[in-house]
Write a structure and sequence with these properties.
- 50% of the residues lie in helices and 9% in strands.
- By secondary structure, the protein is α/β, with parallel strands linked by helices.
- 21% of the residues are buried.
């Protein structure tokens, strides 16, 4: 009888030790797994749901900003005032957000959108996109402002950018349009009012360098490299009317203006003397360039050159204003996705 009790006690102790050992192994395995996760990608720093506010629809920093309906706050953070934000939202953006499926590999494209299960509503997504375009902030800041996890930030940004681009393309005020008819005369009169010798000038034109990431493709890497600045860029060309409106860009080629007495003012980097554009683009003199003629003609040419140089700066101011309003253009753009890069530039322009 005593032997049976001793064997039972020994069996119980063995089972207890086995359970303790199994628990220790499991705990050690979990600690090891977490350490492996923490050290595997130390540069991948982001916030998870427990580090964010509990509900993205209640009392988030964005909610406080939006509820204020303050023009200064909207312009500071998103680059638009309250009325412009509301116009974008009600034109097409909100309708598209609520009626369009968000592209996902694990969701059928033929189903109905379940907007009640989305983390953000239409106004919040538009705010997310405008915050992104108007700043150089990292995704982690957008997580904190809108209380969403990294994958949601990426998915909503990509989808929201496409919706905003489609919305802007339907707005007449957002279209880039080459002047015609009496527009040339009106713009030329504005130029002459300040620069009396620039009769015929109706606008200015300049190149815009935007930084891009370095490509692994040797050919692309070579074509985007700027040896003078030792950085990689893509180039665009924007033309501004005398009213300060963008009238042409690399994505919107100018219409016909042959046989016209009007011209645009450019800097010295632009080709001005080919047969196709002879007299259509005028630029200041290059350093060291010789001017021939009588003393009176040379003096007149130099005064004309100074006015060209002065007016050409309006295009530079336009470029600075564009990059100042859209801080995202100061961040190296993605080199591997030409369409996405082009869409982002089109939205900003």
């Amino acid at each position: 009888m005593l032997l049976d009790e001793d064997e039972a006690e020994l069996s119980f102790n063995d089972n207890e030790r086995a359970q303790v050992l199994a628990a220790a192994i499991i705990a050690g395995s979990e600690v090891s797994r977490q350490e492996h996760i923490d050290t595997r990608h130390p540069h991948r720093l982001y916030l998870c749901q427990p580090q964010l506010l509990p509900n993205p629809r209640i009392n988030t920093p964005w909610q406080v900003l939006y509820d204020s309906q303050n023009d200064r706050a909207f312009i500071t953070t998103m680059g638009v005032d309250v009325s412009t934000f509301s116009s974008l939202l009600t034109t097409d953006f909100a309708q598209a957000w609520y009626k369009t499926l968000i592209p996902r590999d694990d969701v059928s494209t033929h189903g109905n959108p379940r907007t009640n299960q989305r983390s953000l509503d239409a106004a919040e997504v538009l705010g997310l996109v405008l915050h992104y375009l108007s700043s150089t902030m990292h995704a982690i800041s957008l997580q904190q402002i809108f209380t969403i996890i990294p994958s949601t930030v990426t998915r909503y940004l990509n989808f929201g950018l496409q919706l905003l681009l489609c919305t802007l393309r339907t707005l007449s005020d957002a279209k880039i349009q080459w002047p015609g008819g009496l527009d040339f005369e009106h713009c030329s009169a504005l130029v002459v009012a300040r620069h009396g010798r620039l009769g015929g000038a109706f606008g200015s034109i300049d190149g815009l360098k935007l930084p891009v990431q370095t490509s692994d493709d040797a050919d692309i890497k070579n074509t985007t490299f700027n040896g003078w600045l030792s950085e990689h860029f893509i180039s665009s060309v924007l033309a501004f009317s005398a009213e300060g409106v963008i009238i042409a860009a690399w994505l919107n080629a100018p219409g016909s203006w042959h046989g016209s007495r009007y011209y645009v003012v450019a800097d010295m980097a632009f080709l001005c003397g080919s047969n196709d554009i002879q007299g259509r683009i005028r630029a200041p003199l290059k350093q060291g360039q010789r001017v021939q003629g009588s003393l009176a003609e040379i003096d007149e040419h130099m005064v004309f050159n100074c006015e060209l140089l002065s007016y050409q700066r309006t295009a530079e101011w336009g470029m600075c204003g564009l990059q100042g309003a859209f801080g995202r253009l100061r961040v190296p753009l993605e080199i591997g996705n030409k369409d996405l890069r082009g869409d982002l530039i089109e939205i900003c322009v």
